[in-house]
Write a structure and sequence with these properties.
By secondary structure, this protein is an all-beta fold. The protein has no helices and twelve strands. The strands form three sheets. Strands 3, 4, 5, 8, 9 and 10 form a six-stranded antiparallel sheet that branches. The two termini are about 25 Å apart.
């Protein structure tokens, strides 16, 4: 994983992966100056009876009263370690599915038996602006299931 504050990797006895990404202290609240709300969601995808084949974290923000959401960081992790590629996709309400970023090669996580792929910058208020209700998904190559979250 990136050497960033608040990230923890928990690998259980069954070699399942659970990624929890602690949001900054002001996540989910509004700062007085910019009146920006920050959100973080984590999704886990099960496959073949495993607890968690891979997980995905979505970080996004919005200005108070706005129906736009800024997606600033997307991260996915997979355990046990397997080389592979992942990409993220989005579908705005009433629209078609679009590729957010194309396939990106996974890299090994230090001190763990897992791989990860990430896009964007944690804690920033930059990134693509998507409508409220947009479905954002992460997909690993050669795995049928996607990890998805609807931006609120």
């Amino acid at each position: 994983m990136l050497n960033q504050k608040g990230k923890a990797l928990l690998i259980g006895a069954t070699a399942a992966l659970a990624v929890t990404t602690a949001a900054p202290a002001h996540a989910g609240t509004q700062t007085t100056a910019a009146k920006v709300s920050k959100h973080q969601e984590v999704r886990c995808v099960t496959q073949s009876g495993r607890t968690c084949a891979y997980s995905a974290s979505f970080f996004y923000w919005n200005k108070k009263g706005s129906d736009k959401r800024g997606l600033n960081y997307v991260q996915t992790a997979r355990s046990p370690y397997k080389a592979g590629k992942a990409r993220w996709l989005y579908k705005q309400p009433g629209g078609k599915t679009h590729v957010g970023k194309s396939w990106r090669k996974a890299h090994a996580i230090q001190h763990g038996n897992a791989t990860e792929v990430d896009w964007g910058k944690v804690g920033a208020t930059v990134g693509p602006k998507l409508r409220k209700g947009t479905l954002v998904c992460v997909q690993w190559a050669h795995l049928a299931k996607k990890a998805c979250h609807t931006l609120k």
